Amino acid sequence: MSHLLQPLLEHARKTPDKPLFSRRVGDKFEPLTAADIVRTVRRLARGLIALGIEPGQRVALMSRTRVEWALLDYAILAAGATTVPIYETSSAEQVEWIVSDSEAVVAFFETDALHALYRQAQERLPACRHTFVIDQAALEHLQQRGDAVDEARLDERLSQLRASSLATLIYTSGTTGRPRGCELTHGNIRTNALQVLDYAGNIITAQDRTLLFLPLAHALAKMLFLASVERANLVAFASSAGKLTEELALVRPTWFGTVPRVLEKVFQTAQQKAEQAGRGRIFNLAVDAAIRYSREQSAGHVSLVARLQHAVFERLVYRTLRAVLGGELRFVVSGGGPLPERLNHFYNGMGVKVLEGYGMTETSPVLTINTDQVSRIGTVGQPLPGTTVRIAEDGEILVKGPQVFRGYWHNEEASRRAFTPDGWLQTGDLGSLDEQGFLRITGRKKEIIVTAAGKNVAPGPLEDRIREHPLVSQAMVVGEGKPFVAALVTLDPAAFKQWARKHGKEGQPLESLLEDPALRTEVGQAIETANRSVSRAESIRKFAILPHDFTLERDELTPSLKVRRHIVSAHYAQVIEHLFAHTGGGD
After folding, report:
1. Architecture of domain 259-406+426-444 in this structure
2. pLDDT tens across 394-451, in order?
3. Does the bond joining 402 to the residue before it have cis omega, within 30 degrees of 0?
4. Alpha-carbon Rg of the chain, whole angstroms?
5. How far apart, in whole angstroms, are the C-alpha atoms of residue 270 and residue 318?
6. pLDDT tens string 308-323
7. Least crowded by CB within 10 Å, which of 106, 207, 222, 384?
8. Is the whole model's pTM more than 0.85, yes or no?
């Protein structure tokens, strides 16, 4: 086990002309070979040495996912330093906190606008000596500075890298409180990439292509990227979230990593398009047929009826949908939150396997995963080789393994609290293991709502069910210390437009229709479906439709699009208060 640059350097030595990265230039993707990448990384790393960067120092990197992110990250590591990623959606306050807490000595920003966030706090960050803007030729400038530094100095830095060297400090956005820096070593992250490949890697061949659009500041994107490099897959860097459909068609990936929200959006968009074209009924029948096919397949026997229906809808619907995803997609890896079971069965039934896994930033991040060989929809798979998972008496998931971090940066108290006295990491998630060792997540320990009657309600599963409705974008269940639970619901703008057209309310803003009986009936159906999955005491009795969706800009979502409950609760305190006003006792 060595450092994270090892596989890249190996490829450059053995297959220098093999394209490993590609990026969009105009209307096509242009490749970068292993030799090109290593040459650039070495020049950038020498540039960092020229700036006076010493081994172990921290360098901040704030940018969306693009090829420059990967090149800079590798260069920072090659110089013996530690990368501190910052999400491009972070606020000025978060930027100041991360740069200050990590004591970063150099910082890279993608654009002038992101650099401006830093400049608001510049005088309070004396440790940060240099800043660069990627869009202002930062990489060219750094490479030129590096030309004055001897290659031998860089080789010496590379020779000093160990598995125990600190590779990155990832600040966990968390759904509460101030972000804390997770210390992940070269050994933690590389081991995790190799564990995943060892366990699920048969599905990937050296001919595979992936499209990378998740933020590289997120541990899952980083690990999938590094696993791709290990296997010499071609990694295409998406140019923006808005161009995803267009770039799926250009790259035609064979697999990619994603978060559930993206798969939900793809599904909802397809459903809306079918409805607009007057094919809503056919689409819904195709969905049911795919789910049935997948469920029967999982049970080990597909009936003749299911096979015939599947063959019909393959021609009418599934083929077209797979074409939207680039036409050559075999599987996707989904993490960062739960994907509704029905949706997983749907994708599986239409010919794209969704491999759900589970982990957290503190574990580099993958702990368990479903593979193409061994999978059980509704679970997050079995533990990776070398990983041990057990369930504590209160239902909390506890883990041990080589991918588990060593602690939080400059925070001994939090580091100590993260582990049990006998060394198990406490994940904060609740779950159960079945006889075959498949892990099922049942909720977040911190998110459990305790009603006035002392009933424990896990909001996650209810919210997932509500979000399955085509009209719904987000849902948040509330009711801590109240007689019952209620829900805040936001609508998908495109689906709402369609609904308004259908109900003769075209052009009317959502704000004026929040109490509209027809709209409330429609959303009420989503609530009823969710309630069917729980006992009466846990069921949602009231709901409010909100005028706006939750956004990253208002800090209501984490960068991996999880709802920040405390922020939403503060923003909509009056709405929540109103839901519980004039109520008698619950059950």
Report:
1. Roll (2.30)
2. 999 999 999 999 999 999 999 999 999 999 999 999 999 999 999 999 888 888 898 8
3. no
4. 24
5. 11
6. 999 999 999 999 999 9
7. 207
8. yes
